[in-house]
């Protein structure tokens, strides 16, 4: 009886980790889509994000577009669906929607394209898109006597938007001693990959070109100011 209980618990843990309710690690996700040609690979980001770089073979249906529901219903329900966004938030919502609409096999990419890129996995671009900010630009920006506060953000990131007003205030209030550098990771993907920025929002603080402090997630203005003294 004890062994049967262990088996049941083990099976439940397996499905809770790798079944429909959880996201797959990027390497597992990559192996799954490579091994299975009879599947739907879905990129739920914006067209701009998709064209800047996506997993080969993915079709683009924007989760934030009003047409998502009608277009998603046209996907074949007899095939497994593998989907992703930039960091995992939108794909989780899209996956939940698909499951409620009767799709039985829905798999998400944990961490999205940010994790995918951090792991150096292949992607393709739909057009020649130059990054807005590259490593040479970044290194040059750090050559200053001021402190450099770097804000890695994305337009779709809610905590990033919440922090944006006070970061702009800091840029004005402390212009004599602090440079605030805001970098959109969607537009500077290679730099984000090199610096292993695989979640948002992220703040880095540099002094004389060296990283002094970093934080991930929403943080209040007064805590940031305390680091700038």
Helix tally? 10
- The helix content is 40-55%
What is the CATH-assigned architecture of the largest domain? 3-Layer(aba) Sandwich
Strand order of the largest sheet: 1-5-4-2-3
From the alpha-carbon coordinates, what is the Rg to the nearest angstrom? 21 Å
Strand content: 15-25%
Task: State the end-to-end CA separation.
Answer: 63 Å
Q: What do we call the CATH topology of the largest domain?
A: Oxidized Rhodanese, domain 1
As residue ranges, the low-confidence spans are: 2-21
User: Please, how many domains?
Assistant: 2
Give the overall shape, derived from the CA principal axes: elongated
Could you name the CATH homologous superfamily of the largest domain?
Rhodanese-like domain
Give the tally of β-strands: 9
Q: SSE order, as H and E?
A: HEHEHEHEHEHHEHEHEEH
Mean pLDDT: 87
Query: What is the level 1 CATH name of the largest domain?
Result: Alpha Beta
Query: Which secondary-structure class do the elements indicate?
Result: alpha/beta
Q: How can the largest sheet be summarized?
A: 5 strands, parallel
Can you summarize this structure?
With 229 residues, this protein is an alpha/beta fold.
Structure description:
Residues 2-21 have low confidence and may be disordered. The chain has helices at residues 2-18, 26-35, 47-52, 68-72, 89-100, 112-118, 135-141, 158-173, 189-194, 221-227, and strands at residues 23-24, 40-43, 59-60, 81-84, 106-109, 147-153, 178-184, 202-207, 210-216. The protein folds into 2 domains: 2-118, Rhodanese-like domain (Oxidized Rhodanese, domain 1), CATH 3.40.250; 135-227, 3-Layer(aba) Sandwich (Glutaredoxin), CATH 3.40.30. By secondary structure, it is of the alpha/beta class. Strands 1-5-4-2-3 form a 5-stranded parallel β-sheet. Strands 7-6-8-9 form a 4-stranded mixed β-sheet, with helices on one face. The longest helix has 17 residues, at 2-18.
């Amino acid at each position: 009886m004890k062994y049967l209980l262990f088996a049941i618990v083990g099976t439940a843990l397996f499905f809770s980790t790798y079944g429909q309710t959880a996201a797959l690690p990027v390497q597992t996700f990559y192996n799954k889509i490579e091994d299975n040609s009879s599947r739907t690979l879905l990129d739920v980001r914006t067209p701009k994000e998709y064209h800047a770089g996506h997993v080969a073979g993915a079709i683009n249906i924007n989760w934030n577009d009003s047409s998502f529901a009608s277009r998603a219903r046209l996907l074949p329900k007899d095939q497994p669906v593998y989907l992703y966004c930039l960091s995992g938030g939108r794909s989780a919502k899209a996956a939940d929607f698909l499951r409620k609409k009767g799709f039985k096999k829905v798999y998400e990419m944990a961490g999205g394209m940010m994790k995918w890129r951090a792991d150096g996995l292949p992607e393709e671009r739909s057009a020649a898109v130059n990054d807005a900010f590259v490593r040479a630009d970044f290194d040059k920006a750090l050559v200053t006597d001021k402190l450099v506060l770097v804000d890695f953000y994305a337009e779709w990131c809610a905590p990033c938007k919440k922090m944006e007003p006070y970061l702009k205030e800091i840029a004005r209030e402390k212009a004599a001693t602090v440079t605030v550098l805001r970098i959109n990771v969607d537009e500077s993907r290679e730099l984000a990959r090199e610096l292993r920025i695989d979640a948002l929002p992220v703040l880095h603080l540099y002094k004389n070109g060296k990283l002094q402090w970093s934080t991930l997630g929403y943080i209040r203005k007064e805590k940031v100011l305390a680091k700038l003294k």
